[in-house]
């Protein structure tokens, strides 16, 4: 199995291009799943305060033979903790649960534009960066106007925007905006969240043609678009299958065929209206 390549962020640091997501992994199963992923070669682990499984990630980090400086840990500020002081306090809670002093990447989980706090929250992120508590800061579920406002009113351009992205919802405009501004695109729900993408006849046919699984074809599509991708599974065979995507390529015809499954429909919430805290 070939190693996961890295991409360079706008601050000069590197991020593994494929990582392991733990959304909806029950807290009591998280340590085992993350340990399995690290054994399989994953180095980027993507959790969030809202997933309530940061402790399990911390346990897996602590018991791993892989040194912490070879891992890349991401967590996200939960929606109820927007605001300068809240964000700083919530960050400390995360580092305690994860058992680390310095976090690799901290993301604002959702912009919640209706509460108009994300600029203030970002200033706390900039302080954490300046204090050396976090190596990179980014956002999640930000739309172009939210990014434009952040860049106009603050000093640090987000390193990453983690958004829903898969062949049915490929986010062309947002990816183009990111490329223009040096922001990496990180795909969440990359496999379509088990809601039918991997059974789509186009995807199944391309997988047959390539001698790979539908999940591998879709993950390879993300890699070739230049996205960071963080598939989730708790099944050890699938965990290994999902990282085994660096020894084949999709050609232009394959990429075009995959584009045909586009629906333009999100599977998750619309960041402009999502207000849950
Ligand atoms: P995903 O697209 O990774 O789908 C996961 C599901 O796909 C699994 O539960 C399983 O049912 C299926 N699956 C996984 N591997 C498979 C395989 N090889 N073959 C067949 N089926 C397979 O969805 P996700 O978990 O929602 O997204 C990935 C990660 O992105 C999350 O775990 C989380 O870390 C992150 N995420 C972030 C946000 C956000 O708002 N920032 C939202 C959702 C997810």
How does this model look, in words?
This protein has 10 helices and 10 strands. The protein has helices spanning 27-40, 54-63, 84-98, 118-130, 144-153, 172-181, 201-210, 214-225, 236-243, 252-259; strands at residues 6-8, 14-16, 19-21, 44-46, 72-77, 103-108, 134-140, 160-164, 184-188, 228-229. The radius of gyration is 18 Å and the shape is globular.
Average pLDDT for all residues:
97
Measured between the Cα atoms of the first and last residue, the distance is 41 Å
Q: Structural class, judged by helices and strands?
A: alpha/beta
Residue ranges: pLDDT <50 for 5 or more in a row?
none
Overall 3D form: globular
Q: Could you tell me the radius of gyration in angstroms?
A: 18 Å
Binned strand content: 15-25%
Order of helices and strands: EEEHEHEHEHEHEHEHHEHH
**Lateral arrangement of strands in the main beta sheet:** 3-4-5-6-7-8-9-10
Largest sheet: 8 strands, parallel
Oligomer: single chain
Bound molecules: nicotinamide-adenine-dinucleotide
Number of helices: 10
Helical content band:
25-40%
Number of beta-strand segments: 10
Please supply descriptive tags for the structure shown above.
277 residues, alpha/beta, 8-stranded parallel beta sheet, 10 helices, binds nicotinamide-adenine-dinucleotide
Topology:
Elements: E1 6-8, E2 14-16, E3 19-21, H1 27-40, E4 44-46, H2 54-63, E5 72-77, H3 84-98, E6 103-108, H4 118-130, E7 134-140, H5 144-153, E8 160-164, H6 172-181, E9 184-188, H7 201-210, H8 214-225, E10 228-229, H9 236-243, H10 252-259
Parallel strand pairs: 3-4, 4-5, 5-6, 6-7, 7-8, 8-9, 9-10
Antiparallel strand pairs: 1-2
Helix pairs in contact: 1-2, 1-9, 2-3, 3-4, 7-8
The structure holds nicotinamide-adenine-dinucleotide.
